């Protein structure tokens, strides 16, 4: 009889034990069952990390073979057309248009490669956190990823414990996602839910980023965290996958819900989404 089960240690941790039992009822010296156990917590963690790395390699393979290949083909074709038109005086005026298209293809490849590198880094577990001013980090992220026609609203922003750089990366991806899928005029709100005290004497909140854009159908909300999933023509499909990886690296849970609050007439908002990060520790 073999089993692998976690058990609760008196110190509150949950180590994993591998146990093997033997029936020795027929042994006159024992006349009972013998169970040998060993702790394999570290081994299981290594196995999970190896699986995560293998999953990331599969994502990268998929992107290189498909998503990256598409703009590469566009770049090659456009380069050939530009070269042909340059040789023909009657068509030389079309060269700038080809070069613009070539530039867009190169920018697209650069964005995809950057996102892949970010995913490889952000999957790593956050070893240490520090007190982070949520409002200043959100404004720094907005400066990098906010749209020209969009508005940032800070509803409630306490000091939280996080890796500041990776938190900013998470917010940048959420802001970019909100502005990318809206033509203009979107309002993006950053806030937190009510403070909850936990059993280990810490206080946690839910950190949310919501917008009043077109929203996401409920039957697609689980898919948006899959690597490569995007409804935007120029999206890499890695934005929310990166958000989920950074959240999990902090030990947070992430989900998509309807926006909170209500309109002045009491009706719930009929557009937009809220990305909610649960389990964020207050500093």
UniProtKB/TrEMBL annotation:
Residues 63-281 form the Histidine kinase domain. It is an enzyme of class 2 (transferase). Residues 36-63 form a coiled coil. Its EC number is 2.7.13.3. GO terms for molecular function: phosphorelay sensor kinase activity. CDD domains: HATPase, HisKA. InterPro entries: HATPase_C_sf, HATPase_dom, His_kinase_dom, HisK_dim/P_dom, HisK_dim/P_sf, PAS-like_dom_sf, Sensor_HK_Regulatory, Sig_transdc_His_kin-like_C. Keywords: Coiled coil, Kinase, Phosphoprotein, Transferase, Two-component regulatory system. It catalyses: ATP + protein L-histidine = ADP + protein N-phospho-L-histidine. The keyword Coiled coil applies. PROSITE patterns: HIS_KIN (PS50109). Transmembrane segments: none annotated. The keyword Coiled coil applies. This is histidine kinase.
């Amino acid at each position: 009889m073999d089993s692998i089960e976690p058990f609760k240690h008196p110190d509150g941790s949950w180590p994993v034990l591998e146990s093997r039992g033997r029936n020795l009822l027929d042994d006159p010296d024992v006349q009972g069952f013998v169970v040998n156990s060993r702790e394999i917590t570290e081994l299981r963690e290594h196995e999970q990390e190896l699986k995560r790395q293998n999953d990331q390699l599969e994502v990268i393979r998929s992107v290189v073979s498909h998503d990256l290949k598409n703009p590469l083909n566009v770049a090659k074709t456009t380069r050939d057309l530009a070269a042909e038109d340059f040789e023909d005086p009657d068509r030389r005026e079309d060269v700038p248009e080809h070069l613009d298209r070539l530039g867009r293809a190169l920018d697209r490849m650069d964005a995809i490669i950057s996102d892949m590198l970010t995913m490889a880094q952000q999957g790593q577990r956050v070893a240490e956190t520090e007190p982070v001013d949520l409002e200043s980090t959100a404004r720094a992220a907005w400066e990098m990823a906010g749209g020209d026609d969009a508005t940032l609203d800070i509803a409630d922003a306490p000091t939280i414990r996080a890796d500041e750089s990776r938190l900013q990366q998470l917010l940048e991806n959420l802001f970019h996602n909100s502005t990318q899928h809206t033509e203009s005029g979107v309002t993006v709100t950053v806030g937190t839910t009510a403070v909850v005290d936990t059993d280990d004497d810490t206080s946690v909140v839910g950190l949310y980023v919501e917008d009043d854009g077109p929203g996401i159908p409920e039957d697609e909300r689980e898919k948006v965290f899959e690597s490569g999933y995007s409804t935007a023509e120029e999206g890499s499909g890695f934005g929310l996958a990166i958000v989920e990886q950074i959240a999990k690296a902090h030990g947070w849970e992430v989900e998509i819900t309807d926006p909170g609050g209500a309109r002045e007439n009491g009706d719930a908002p009929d557009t937009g989404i809220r990305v909610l990060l649960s389990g964020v520790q207050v500093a």
